[in-house]
Amino acid sequence: MSQPLVGIIMGSTSDWETMSRAAEMLETLGIAHETRVVSAHRTPDRLVAYAREAEGRGIRVIVAGAGGAAHLPGMVAAMTHLPVLGVPVRSKSLSGLDSLLSIVQMPAGIPVGTLAIGEAGAANAGLMAASILALNDEGLRDRLVAWRQAQTDKVPDSPQ
Ligand code: RP5
């Protein structure tokens, strides 16, 4: 793939099962991306470096997934003006409600575009990243519109 435009980051390798849905969506739409494990708790220096360097490396949208006390999306958003899309990963103890509340309740001034808990949220983060990039990319705009139309066409009139 060419120069990555979307950075998919996650707090742990255990988040990949969820976050791979975002990567699959970007692959389907032909959007160059990169994937990294960046933990707010275990690798804080890596987090700072990633957030500070992303724009200069050509990244345009960051998709950040984490579970539990999920600081990653908010911390990254605090250090870059790039759009940050947060994916709450389902947790063992609270099924991802903890992740959701950790990510969604940002104070005014530092936005994180928060998606649904789990795989649907990850897939939609990929689609949302595509929508943002499509504003300045007519080819991608056409692929996104075609993908949505194909989804519509798959819905039958009747359940039987
Ligand atoms: C978070 O803790 C990660 O984002 C992950 O969702 C969760 C559990 O991580 P592991 O203990 O599986 O590495 O930081």
Automatic annotation (TrEMBL):
Pathway participation: Purine metabolism; IMP biosynthesis via de novo pathway; 5-amino-1-(5-phospho-D-ribosyl)imidazole-4-carboxylate from 5-amino-1-(5-phospho-D-ribosyl)imidazole (N5-CAIR route): step 2/2
Pfam families: AIRC
Residues given in the record as substrate binding sites: S12, D15, R42
Alphabetized InterPro entries for the sequence: PurE_ClassI, PurE_dom, PurE_prokaryotes
Domain (PurE): residue spans on this chain: 4-155
Transmembrane regions: none
Reaction(s) this enzyme catalyzes, per UniProt: 5-carboxyamino-1-(5-phospho-D-ribosyl)imidazole + H(+) = 5-amino-1-(5-phospho-D-ribosyl)imidazole-4-carboxylate
Keyword Secreted attached: no
Key word Isomerase present: yes
Entry-linked SUPFAM superfamilies: N5-CAIR mutase (phosphoribosylaminoimidazole carboxylase, PurE)
SMART domains the record matches: AIRC
Family per record: Belongs to the AIR carboxylase family. Class I subfamily.
Functional note: Catalyzes the conversion of N5-carboxyaminoimidazole ribonucleotide (N5-CAIR) to 4-carboxy-5-aminoimidazole ribonucleotide (CAIR).
UniProt-recorded name of the protein: N5-carboxyaminoimidazole ribonucleotide mutase
Gene, per the UniProt record: purE
